[in-house]
Specification:
elongated; 4 helices; 61% helix; mainly alpha
């Protein structure tokens, strides 16, 4: 019964005194790039068992995610971008591929009640991931453009002559 008891005292649910105040590096751009590398390796390892179009499209998704991560060279990644990248690389894309690979090869091109084959469904799901990644990339780039416009406005205000100058 002791396994159902909650720990009592000041340490219950709180970080220990030795826990550092450093940010979680698992969401760092380098950690995210590592997840991209892992996803690409998984796609490549299964490329002989996946339709060629699925391999190309899945790699396009990873390339887009890598582009999103590269925007961190200018400004930190938005929390929603990090969540999208991490979820796509650790859950959505691998689950889509693994689920497809679990289907018996003879059944992959047989229409299902939805009228789609497993192969068509795979391609449709990868396309949805690409659309999502494209939206996040556009949002990240728009943040950069907005920041540039804000900087330009600041510089004009700071260094342009004022009507009050004599």
């Amino acid at each position: 019964m002791s396994r159902f008891r909650r720990e009592r005292g000041p340490a219950a649910g709180l970080p220990s005194a030795s826990a550092s105040a450093e940010p979680d590096v698992s969401d760092s751009p380098d950690a995210l790039r590592g997840l991209v590398f892992d996803a690409v390796r998984m796609i490549n390892q299964n490329s002989g068992r996946l339709p060629g179009e699925a391999v190309v499209n899945a790699r396009r998704v990873t390339d887009t995610l890598r582009e999103i991560i590269s925007t961190s060279d200018v400004r930190p990644l938005d929390v929603y971008a990090v969540i999208n990248i991490r979820s796509t690389l650790t859950d959505y894309l691998p689950t889509t591929i693994r689920t497809y690979l679990a289907v018996d090869e003879e059944l992959r091109d047989s229409p299902r009640p939805s009228a789609l084959t497993a192969t068509q469904s795979l391609l449709e799901q990868i396309e949805a991931l690409q659309i999502s990644a494209d939206l996040v990339l556009t949002a990240a780039r728009n943040l950069d453009i907005d920041a540039l416009m804000t900087q330009g406005t600041f510089l004009r205000t700071k260094f342009a002559g004022s009507d009050l100058d004599l």
